[in-house]
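Re: [ENG-882] Designed sequences occasionally contain unexpected residues at chain ends

Forwarding the minimal case from QA. Structure tokens:
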């Protein structure tokens, strides 16, 4: 049975499940940011735990086929080396899982932080959607909104 599960989860299937699997978390963040479901399932360690399991599975699968992990450090040598790494689907999946997990963590942080300043969830929807698509710009939009609600600007909170 474990062998059937292992052969079912190809890179393409994992990609599909990761993309579909995070959507409920984002819907809860956007539409129900103050609910108990959001607190227990989205802004907790639960989604990061799931995505860490996927990440570990991809690393394990990479190890079994003899992926060159030492070659990953070449990405710091220039854009050509980075481009070479992105030719490998396993590396792309490692990167994509990392990207999805960080953006979801960031979305959870935005929701938790917005509750301290009583920011309206309608205003919160825009930076959350942008964070889902392009994380750092969504954080910047949230920061601009947050300045008006916090009535101060601090770089250390």
């Amino acid at each position: 049975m474990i062998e059937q599960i292992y052969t079912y989860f190809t890179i393409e299937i994992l990609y599909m499940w990761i993309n579909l699997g995070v959507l409920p978390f984002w819907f809860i963040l956007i539409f129900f940011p103050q609910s108990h479901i959001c607190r227990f399932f989205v802004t907790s360690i639960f989604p990061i735990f799931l995505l860490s399991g996927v990440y570990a599975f991809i690393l394990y699968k990479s190890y079994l086929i003899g992926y060159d992990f030492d070659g990953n450090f070449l990405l710091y040598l220039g854009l050509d080396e980075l481009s070479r790494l992105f030719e490998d689907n396993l590396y792309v999946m490692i990167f994509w899982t990392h990207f999805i997990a960080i953006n979801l963590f960031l979305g959870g942080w935005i929701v938790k932080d917005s509750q301290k300043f009583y920011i309206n969830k309608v205003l919160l929807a825009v930076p959350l959607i942008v964070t889902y698509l392009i994380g750092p710009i969504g954080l910047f939009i949230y920061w601009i909104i947050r300045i008006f609600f916090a009535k101060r600007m601090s770089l250390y909170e």
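QA comment: On inspection the terminal residues look reasonable. Residues 89-116 form the longest helix (28 residues). Proposing we downgrade this to a documentation issue.
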